[in-house]
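Thread: quick sanity check before group meeting

JM: Hey all, I'm pulling together slides for Thursday and realized we never actually wrote out the predicted structure for the chain we discussed last week. Dropping the sequence here so it's in one place. If anyone has concerns about the input, flag it before I start.
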Amino acid sequence: MNDTEFDKIFALMKASFPASERRTYAGQKELLADPHYRLITETNSNNQLLAFMAAWEFPLFRFVEHIAVDPVTRGSGIGGKIMSAYIEESLKPILLEVEYPDTVLAQRRISFYERLGFQLNPFEYVQPPLQKGETYLPLKIMSFPQIFTAEEFALHKEILYTNVYKVTEYQR
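JM (edit): ok, ran it. Output follows.
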C-alpha cells in the first residue's frame, strides 16, 4: 500500500470515527507492518475510495476493528457488501465492537450487524484507549455466527487486549 492510498483510508477513518475510537496517523500506519492486520478497500472505476474495512486475523477468530463508507455513498449497500464478502470467506468466528444500544444510531448499527448474522454478547467489555489521553470505552462485543460462552469470551478478549490494544487487563 502506498502513502496516497493509506492517506485516503486514514482521512475516511478520521471523518468516520471520533479520536477515542481510532489511533493517531503514525499509530495506524505502524499497523501495516503487523502480519495479523489487514485493510480491505472498495473503490469505484475511477479508483476513488468508497469504503474500507480494517480487520485482524488470528488463529482462533477474525476481528473487524473499523468499517467505514464514504459519506457520499452511505446507504448504497457497500458496507453490507464488504461485510458479507468477509463473512463468506471466513471459516472462523468474527468479532466486532459496537456502542451500547442506548442511542438510535447505535441501535441502527447493531441492527445492521444482526441482519448479517452477528449476535450481541451479554458480557461486560471495555475498549482500551487507542490514543494517549483517552480512557477505556465501554462497548459491547458482537460475534458471528453465535454468542460466545463466558470462557470463549474471556479468551477472545485476552487475545484482543494483548495483540490489538497491547495491554493487559491489569493495566486498567
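AS: nice. The beta strands are 37-43, 49-57, 62-69, 94-98, 119-120, 125-127, 137-144. Residues 3-171 form a domain with the Aminopeptidase fold (CATH 3.40.630.30).
JM: adding both to the slides.
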